[in-house]
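The authors assume throughout that readers already know how a fold can be written as discrete tokens. What matters is that the chain and its backbone geometry are given together, residue for residue. A single example would do more here than another paragraph of explanation. For illustration, here is how one protein appears when written out as sequence plus structure tokens.
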Amino acid sequence: MLKKLIYVMAFGLLADAFAQTYDLPIMFIDTKQKCLDYNVTKKLPATIKVLDAKTNNVADSSKATQYNIGIKVRGKSSATQPKSNYTIEFYDSTGKDMNVGLLGLPPSDDWALLGPYVDKSMVRNSFGHWLFRQTGRYSPRTKHFDLYINGAYRGVYVLTERIKRGKYRVNVSELQKTDTEGENLTGGYIWEFDKKWSRTGAGEPIDNTIRDFKTSDGHNIVLIYPRKKKITNEQKEYIQNYLGELDSLYKGGKSGSGYEKYVDIVSAADYLLHLELTTNADPYFAYNFFMYKPKDETDKQGNKTAGKITLGPPWGFEITLCNNTHPENYEINNNDSTSLPTLENCFVEGWQIDRTYKNIGLGGVQPIRWLWGMWKDSVFQTEMKKRWAELRSGVWHTKTMDAYLDSMKAHLKDAAERNFKRWPNLGKGSSFYDEDPLPIKYCRESQILGTGVPIGGFNADTWDGEFEHLRKKTKERMAWMDEQLGFKEPANPVVTAPVDPEIHEPHWQKDTIPDDTIPDDTVPLIRLKEFGRLSPTNFFDINGNNIEVQTSLGGTFALIDLNGVVLYKTRIKKGLTILKIPANARNKAWIATLNGKMMNR
């Protein structure tokens, strides 16, 4: 009877979907009658079709652009959730990696397809990355779409750029195997602090063979660029020693003096403020903690610029922003460690980094010593307070955030209704081990059925309730941080966006050319030489009483205080402009703008 009911549900959903017009793009994946679940550890050959018009219909799938891909389930514990996350990689007709632009995003050969399940607002990953991009720094861009696998509807998914090197991603210099000395050896590098796992059935044993090296403090480093197979011994030794020198500043009773020579302080302030705002604890425990190092450079006049460790981009927000019911993350008012707190109190009044580092050694993972030491440094705390005021006065202002969330809510209204018909988990706790009411085709016998404790969710009866809970709790967290950092939000935002709009919506087509070796209807490939171009191209720096402005745009440059009062304004041309900071702007908090948008330092 149960099987009959499932088939009836499946037929009903498919019939409705086939006749329905979708307001999101649709992707159709065919695994060629192979099971696609957490047991598949190598990418499975498959095809993908993409429909991306203003409106889309399943009946038009034959008109979609088709590609060859490899696909596998991604994640650690999240690999066991019924609505899986996937990694896909595109191949040409010969089986080689191929760059493809998807849903308007710049071309790449690999992508993440994230299925919001525990996150019933369906926007936490998009929102978390948007917040970080608002600082003027890169964070993976996202697009929502509807997914079908083997002819069956799998719900609303989020296409997400993976963290890798490239002009429109982490834009550090390309390293050649011949770059083994001098400035060429100093960058660019991208790496991740992470405890990597291999999946064998339902278990998750640690697989230390995945790491590329350990730091002197014992943390696993996984190289993102260059990869382990391509990095030279000299390059690996250079970045290992660089991290070791930073670690050494805090050993043997040392105070950490000189850390600013190794770490880009403004990037660190942005990253740590973002972690605290989103309550994303993983990087504090050396999970999903990405960072990169640009190359040292000397200009034509002989001026040297050191490429310092830059924190970010961030990753992984599904159980952040008040969506985590793990007891250790909350304030519990009794001695019963098995009881779960009410989610109304999910943002404990306290810094997440303090709470995390009080549990040193939890799960066998040691926090990163230099990160903790830098956080406690009074000079860095002053920088964080200043940066928080700049961001909250403009690009992180409550009204700026509301505008973004309002647009996402309108965009996903109909999609949410479709998704929760397929995944009826509103109003109840959700776990990575939940049962799939309509198991993916060819995998009916391999599904995990567990008894996991619910991982997250406000458990509102409606999607609107989940969405507004996210908004409410984010504002509460902002207000608490305002109080701790001595800031009062102005009535209106000074600015609403960073100066470079391509951080959000890159116009990548202008930098591409078609490749004569591939069909005319294929997405053009990025000019490989453009990968080496450093970004951003619009920024400023402070040198004594001078402000040095570098811009590829030119226009009206202004200094505006946190209440929106213009302190200074002038016209500048493209290139480098050196200006005296006016007396009325010295020793005062202000935001530098170009053509009304926030410039980054």
User: Anything to note?
Assistant: The chain has nine helices and 25 strands. The CA atoms of residues 99 and 109 lie 4 Å apart. Confidence is low (pLDDT under 50) at residues 1-15, 197-209, 326-344, 513-535. The radius of gyration is 24 Å.
